[in-house]
Design goal:
- The structure is a single chain.
- The protein is of the alpha/beta class.
- Helix content is about 50%, strand content about 15%.
- Helix 1 runs antiparallel to helix 2, helix 2 crosses helix 3 and helix 4 packs across helix 14.
- The longest helix has 19 residues.
- It is globular, with a radius of gyration of 21 Å.
- About 35% of the residues are buried.
Length: about 280
């Protein structure tokens, strides 16, 4: 097969990889046979200069044809996270929910005094004696990278809080993390490695990236649901319910009281969530 060059979300050329489509379909829950069939079909249609957004739509259309809706939903996880902001769900709240599922004690949007100035901290996360300052950077375009200014800004705030603790102005922090739903520039990766700053983003780090943290415990945001209308999204946002699995853990009467949605609508939402989350709730 001749090499085909496509345009990624950042506007850069990269070689099309059929195995990448196949692997992503498998991760979403497609069978080996369907994943192979879809990857071959996509590969036969891809042309030089095609962008990854077009390839995603093509793959989603094929998944919708061959697979159950919950597989399509899980495949579009990145898109679901991009839809958090427009749906009214703060990204720092979403990530705090993920951290809580991993055993952290979390507090969001805390205003603390550093040595020089006060800071609004997106998340204060504590686990096993490690008190972490977490800065969240949300982007609604997959082509946007987190650049070095964000890393420098985050680390400078952390240092001011460390000095603030010495001056007895704020609690003690022992580590700092920068989290995003997109990717980091090379400078950010090098700077964070040098300073010991933890990074969590799309595809980084391997084994602990944002999507891997979500998929490992099925912590899907409700924006992953294909049939969820805008009104329902706003109602769940107002009720501060972000994770699919939490909807299944609540009594339907409580969901109705908190969201004002009808019983039939909530039952349909719960049915779809049960398929997306499987047996992990």
């Amino acid at each position: 097969m001749a090499r085909i060059w496509i345009i990624n979300a950042a506007g850069e050329k990269e070689e099309f990889a059929m195995d990448k489509v196949r692997h992503t379909c498998l991760r979403a829950g497609a069978s080996e046979e369907i994943a192979e069939r879809i990857s071959e079909d996509v590969a036969s249609r891809v042309r030089d200069g095609m962008n990854t957004r077009h390839i995603l739509k093509m793959t989603l259309a094929l998944l919708s044809k061959f697979e159950e809706p919950h597989v399509v939903a899980r495949y579009d996880l990145k898109g679901a996270i991009m839809r958090l902001g427009p749906a009214g769900f703060p990204f720092e709240t979403f990530f705090s929910e993920i951290l809580a599922e991993y055993g952290y004690t979390v507090h969001t949007r805390q205003i603390l005094n550093g040595f020089c100035i006060s800071h609004e901290i997106d998340i204060v996360a504590e686990k096993e004696g490690d008190v972490q300052m977490v800065e969240c950077k949300y982007r609604n375009s997959s082509g946007d990278y987190i650049g070095i200014k964000d890393a420098l800004y985050t680390y400078a705030r952390y240092l001011d809080l460390v000095e603030g603790y010495t001056a007895k102005k704020c609690p003690k922090f022992t580590s700092v993390a920068l989290v995003t739903n997109t990717k980091f520039s090379g400078d950010v990766l090098r700077y964070a490695s040098c300073k010991g700053m933890k990074l969590v983003g799309w595809g980084y780090p391997r084994g602990g990236s944002l999507q891997e943290m979500i998929e490992a415990k099925h912590l899907y945001p409700i924006t992953v649901l294909r049939a969820l209308d805008n009104l329902s999204q706003r109602r769940f946002a107002a009720a501060n319910i972000m994770l699919c699995k939490h909807i299944l853990q609540l009594e339907i009467s409580e969901l109705q009281e908190r969201t004002g949605l009808g019983m039939r609508k909530l039952e349909g939402i719960r049915d779809e969530i049960a398929q997306v989350c499987g047996d992990e709730v």
